[in-house]
Amino acid sequence: MRRLTAALSALYAGLIYLFIFLPVVVLVLFSFQDGTLPVPPLNGLTLRWYEAVLSDGKLMAALGNSLLVAVLSSALACLLGFLAAYAFARYRLPASALLRGLLVAPMTVSTLIIGLGLLSVLNVTGLRLSLVTVGIGHVVINLPLCFAVIYASMGGHQVNIERAARDLGAKDWQVMALVTAPMLMPSILAAFFLSVTFSWDEFIVAFLLSRFDVTLPVEIWSMLRSGLDPKTNAVGSLVFLVSVAFLLVMELAVFRKSGRSS
């Protein structure tokens, strides 16, 4: 009976992983297709589609735009999330529970609704659509995540250390920047890398709030309008590779560091 249970559990786990990773495997496999369509049968292996992607000026520009928007918007979202978490954890604010709920509420709202709302606000203010507006949109959708991750790690054991720093003459901003922030660095880095990952391949807000300078997901969507070819598979494989790289960096920089500190 135990062997049967173990076999069924292994089969169940295998089916789950197959369901998750089979589309990625197919995407990467047919990015090497030596033909004009990324469909079976596999006619041979070639790197010419990756060469075509890397030599495409529009795709490389969109790739740089995506990295720029992801890094800067995530950094700003982490900064604002840390300041908000510090205020709610260390000060008594009126209606703090309501304010926290409002701050994390965008996590439950569709990005389409957020994007349309931001587009309406930008039209009223007269701000032209650009990478700046895309970055603003990504800050809006990533700020609740950063706040939730950082606020959850702010415990009462840190208060004594902060109080000791104040007793030694540190000012409030010094305590926050030189004492609290380093103690929360694993959570801050986790929030940052998660935000970068979400912003890196976010499409809806980037599509609604951009015009001429676009991010990589918007450029890929433009390519798909003309039909499938192995070049789109190559682009998708590179996007997947960058996302995995971000997750590996987060694993090495955050979770192992927090494991050693514990």
UniProtKB/TrEMBL annotation:
It is a multi-pass membrane protein. The chain crosses the membrane at residues 12-32, 67-89, 101-122, 134-154, 175-200, 234-255. Belongs to the binding-protein-dependent transport system permease family. CysTW subfamily. It is found in: Cell membrane. It comes from Shinella pollutisoli. The keyword Transmembrane helix applies. It comes from the Bacteria. Residues 63-250 form the ABC transmembrane type-1 domain. This is ABC transporter permease. Keywords: Cell membrane, Membrane, Transmembrane, Transmembrane helix, Transport. It holds the Pfam family BPD_transp_1.
